[in-house]
Write a structure and sequence with these properties.
single chain, 381 residues, alpha/beta, FAD/NAD(P)-binding domain, D-Amino Acid Oxidase, Chain A, domain 2, 14 helices, binds flavin-adenine dinucleotide
Length: 381
């Protein structure tokens, strides 16, 4: 009998497991694959501020591939906004390696990691799992579903989702010539409901991808690389869904909690889920500790998540607003943003994970927000 079993050895599950174990409660993580962080479907871009908040600088540095200083963001007709800083704002990490570093530190803290172990079902305190093709039972007081975007745990506790809650992402590693300091983001028809990206690993290699709701992601990708003249040697490919739906309000049922992509703790603006998922995983860990120690209800996890949910809801609203614009409206907005020097404002005040931080600062600048009344109304109501 474990006190807690976490389903899924991704960043959010490992953060939750390590936290519960560190608080003194015997914890296991089950992972369906034979190796943590493999396969991987991720660009591996994480904010410096998020790494600081989580206190995982050493872990990130172990798998660091590039340091990013800003972004060039293009509208459908190639209007550009540049957000440039003199210092590093984000890291590009080897994502598989990152998960393995997190797994190692969790195991060092005492977490038991069970590979090749897939969750099939949960009944009360019993997990029905498949281990190397054989059925087994695991007993656990509390269960954390951190099993990613297609979460089995989420289905087991009865949370349904629909296709409109996701975008489909496709990414390739490309060998070519890239400016290693900046990521590039592109809005256009090849990326309906989302955007395309070029995230450099160094001067000669980048992760080039896009996400879209169109239903033919390969075609979208080919159109994008042709239109933007991205050439070079196309190597590894990955493809997966990204949750962009409204954050769930209820993610605890009896003794089961959800965290990370399983709980839609993903930024609907950018699809990034590593930092907020790990922060949420830790909050899950603390809520479980309070449950065991002080008999507090596990449901408190939902309340304890409020600061994270506030940010997730803002991301979701910004996404709704962007998706409400036609290409022409988006071009016009980019032009206006260029004239109002929004890029410079974002360089000083922007935050990749927590939009509330820059929206708060924006509200102190009526000269700026009065230029975008529709956006402000959409996002703040
Ligand atoms: C193309 C792409 C690019 C992205 N780029 C970024 C980025 O640059 N930055 C960023 O922050 N986010 C990015 N994301 C999102 C990010 O990858 C996810 O938000 C993040 O991985 C979520 O972490 P998690 O721990 O919740 O789930 P995951 O990392 O998905 O981990 C879930 C784990 O559960 C395991 N599992 C699943 N089902 C079972 C089962 N039944 N039994 C046992 N184990 C199971 C899986 O094997 C997996 O190891 C990207 C996503 C995509 C698709």
């Amino acid at each position: 009998m474990y006190m807690t079993t976490v389903v899924g050895a991704g960043p959010s599950g490992l953060a939750a497991a390590k936290r519960v174990q560190e608080r003194g409660w015997e914890t296991a993580v089950i992972e369906e694959h034979p190796k943590v962080g493999d396969p991987v479907a991720c660009t591996g871009l994480i904010s410096v501020s998020g790494v600081k908040d989580l206190g995982i600088r050493k872990e990130a540095e172990e798998v660091l591939m590039n340091e990013i200083r800003g972004a060039q963001i293009f509208s459908p007709s190639h209007e550009m906004i540049e957000v440039k800083r003199s210092e590093t704002v984000a890291y590009v990490v080897d994502r598989g390696g990152f998960d393995r570093v997190l797994a190692r530190t969790a195991v060092e803290a005492g977490v038991e990691l069970k590979l090749n172990t897939r969750l099939i079902d949960i009944r009360g305190e019993t997990l029905f799992v498949e281990h190397k093709g054989r059925g087994e039972l695991i007993k656990s007081r509390v269960i954390v579903g951190a099993d990613g975007v297609n979460s089995r745990t989420r289905k087991i506790i009865g949370i349904e989702t629909t296709a409109k809650d996701y975008v489909h992402a496709y990414q390739m590693d490309v060998k070519g010539r890239f400016d290693p300091r900046y990521v590039q983001l592109y809005f256009g028809d090849y990326s309906k409901g989302f955007f395309a990206w070029v995230v450099p690993e160094n001067e000669e290699r980048a992760r080039v991808g896009l996400a879209s709701t169109s239903g033919n992601i390969r075609k979208d990708f080919n159109l994008f690389v042709q239109e933007k003249n991205i050439s070079g040697e196309f190597c590894d490919m990955c493809s997966s869904l990204i949750p962009v739906g409204e954050p769930f309000r209820s993610i605890v049922k009896d003794n089961v909690l959800l965290t990370g992509d399983a709980a839609f703790q993903t930024k609907a603006t950018s699809g990034g889920g590593i930092i907020l998922g790990m922060l949420a995983g830790r909050i899950a860990g603390d809520s479980i500790d309070a449950h065991f120690k002080n008999n507090l209800p596990l449901k408190n996890y939902e309340r304890n998540l409020e600061p994270i949910n506030k940010e997730l809801r803002l991301h979701w609203k910004i996404r709704q607003f962007m998706n409400s614009l036609s290409n022409e409206q988006m071009d016009a907005m980019f032009r206006k943003m260029g004239r109002a020097k929004v890029g410079e404002f974002l360089a000083q005040a922007g935050d990749m994970d927590r939009p509330s931080r820059f929206i708060g600062k924006l509200m102190l600048k009526p000269s700026l927000w009065r230029l975008f009344p529709e956006a402000v109304k959409f996002i703040t109501t």
